[in-house]
Amino acid sequence: MKAFRILGIALCSMLIMACGQKKQTAAVGPMAPDPNAKPLVKLAKVVEEPVDQLLVYSATIVGEVKNNIAPSAPGRISRIKVEVGDNVKKGQILVEMDETTLSQQEMQLKNLETEFNRIDQLYQVGGVSKSEWDNVKLQLEVARKSFQTLKENTRLESPIDGVVTARNYDNGDLYGGQAILVVQKMAPVKLTINVSEQYYSKVKKGDAVSIELDAYPGETFKGKVSLIYPTIDAMTHTFPVELNVANEDLKLRPGMFARATLNLGTLNHVVVPDLAIDKRAGSGDRFVYVYKDGKVYYSKVELGQRLGDRYELLSGVENGAEIVIAGLSKLADGKEVEVEK
User: Fold this and answer.
1) Do 331 and 296 touch, CB atoms closer than 8 A?
2) Parallel/antiparallel/unpaired status of strands 338-339 and 40-45
3) 0.90 exceeded by the pTM?
4) pLDDT for position 207
5) How far is 231 from 157, CA to CA, in rounded Å?
6) What confidence category does residue 20 fall into, taking pLDDT thresholds of 50, 70 and 90?
7) Could you report how far apart the first and last alpha carbons of the chain are, in Å?
8) Domains contained in the chain, CATH given
9) DSSP 46-69
């Protein structure tokens, strides 16, 4: 019995010692992070490089010329001779209106011509005065002009070579104000964009333009600046610019959505990785941290174009500066840092 008691005491002593060792180990545990340790950052040196100054605008393609085909007064439509999508030539008759009035006017004109011929013969032999002759001649000239105007508004011609892009009536309808047909010139076509006034002195007539369309993915069409408006909109501080595209193959159609890119030349600007750009909470400002003498400093920047995984900077960082590209989350203005080797 005594031997068992001694053995039990020994086992208890061993258990107490083991527990003490575990508590000691637990007390030591892993080392807590040092709150005074310097943040570890990675730096990159930035340099200026030539950057194409590209301006991209959205616009809708329109025909260079758009004509609404309609008479000058209400009337019955006898026959529409073309359909939407038809190519038409300048001078081609597109619509014939009711000719009742035209026929009446033509008969009156013929009667006046007969009367003038009679008066003219009498005038030649002294049978009527010069004033009578002048009066009948004036009536004849007025009737001829009226007949020609009525004829033009009865047999409606296309004023241009183009394509019929809209038809708003059927044969027999009474014309009531809306154009009967719309004809547009499809080659060339044009786009109008609104450019910020800061570029007014940089955009020149004849500048090359690249045009991209959703209808033709991956394809680029060439155009040029054809017209620059001479005034600035006081509300938007922009000015309209018209772009012309030859469209010889007629692939571009009025109404298509397009993106037009103007290249205003090349400027040397600092370019930084997009990882270096941070946004200050509570504002839309963008900034980077510039490293100098063991510390980092907040620098507000103005972004230009995105160039893949980099940004063009218009201001905020000098050429040759070192900036932070990793470890931004724990930084503050003027904070000391440790640079990753």
Assistant:
1) yes
2) parallel
3) no
4) 93
5) 36
6) low
7) 70
8) 40-50+268-339 (2.40.420.20), 56-64+186-267 (2.40.30.170), 67-175 (no CATH)
9) --EEEEEEEEEEEEE-EEEEEEEE
